[in-house]
Design goal:
single chain; 231 residues; alpha+beta; eight-stranded antiparallel β-sheet; 3 helices; disordered N terminus
């Protein structure tokens, strides 16, 4: 077989392999929210311990997952994940407010007897993409400029746990849907909001855990919550 024929055959094999990979990768997409109920998730709301008939802040409405904001707590996946790309759409339909997606969540109520040990990807209006360290840590470039004085850094109560995002104006106007993509690979976490890179961290102190959605005082709607495992 001459060199040109061999190269053509090699390209054909590569094309078939790549096509198979794309089909395979697409088939491995996990729908974390089915649009009907909260299957695959569980609620951790401290107030429900003492007031069991209090309102559950996580509901399904019009095929959207809604965090009502209060009472405060978390909706947590039953499953533990590592090396994945998480995508979802979210919006503050009414007033601007606060919420977050937690990755690598583990020990419940590890901070302020409320927040599970995790790394938070902030969704707070005008601050989407900030990292908050919750009894876990992560490193970014320009840490001192984005986190404050190094002597005050920490991962528990009273410490500088916020690492500001890289951009401004990545969010859409209030009431419109925003897209979020969080890629967790080994000890790295990369975040895009509306396809704009807004944060990148490395040397995270954890590389696996559950995924959680916050109820943190504001009503937020979610849809199209999907996960793809990364090779």
């Amino acid at each position: 077989m001459d060199k040109i024929s061999f190269n053509k055959r090699l390209l054909l094999v590569f094309g078939v392999t790549l096509g198979s990979c794309l089909v395979s990768c697409e088939s491995e997409t996990i729908q974390l929210f089915n649009g009907e109920d909260l299957s695959g998730w569980h609620v951790d709301v401290p107030l429900l311990d003492s007031v069991p008939d209090a309102t559950n802040p996580f509901i399904v409405r019009d095929k959207k997952l809604v965090s009502l904001g209060t009472p405060q707590g978390h909706l947590i996946t039953d499953e533990i994940f590592s090396d994945y790309s998480l995508t979802l759409q979210y919006r503050f339909a009414g007033e601007p407010g606060n919420c977050g997606i937690l990755v690598h969540a583990s020990t419940p109520r590890a901070l302020y007897k409320m927040f599970p040990k995790s790394i938070e990807v902030q969704l707070m209006h005008a601050n989407a993409g900030d990292f908050w360290c919750i009894v876990e840590d992560i490193t970014t470039n320009d840490m001192e400029a984005r986190r404050g004085s190094k002597s005050d850094w920490g991962i528990t109560e009273g410490k500088l746990r916020r690492i500001k995002n890289l951009t401004d104006d990545s969010e859409k106007p209030l009431g419109e849907w925003n897209s979020l993509r969080v890629e967790c690979k080994n000890n790295e976490v990369t975040v895009w909001v509306n396809d704009v890179l807004v944060n990148y961290g490395y040397n995270a102190t954890t590389s696996k855990g559950q995924i959680a959605i916050q109820a943190e005082g504001s009503e937020v709607e979610f849809k199209a919550i999907q996960l793809i495992h990364l090779d």
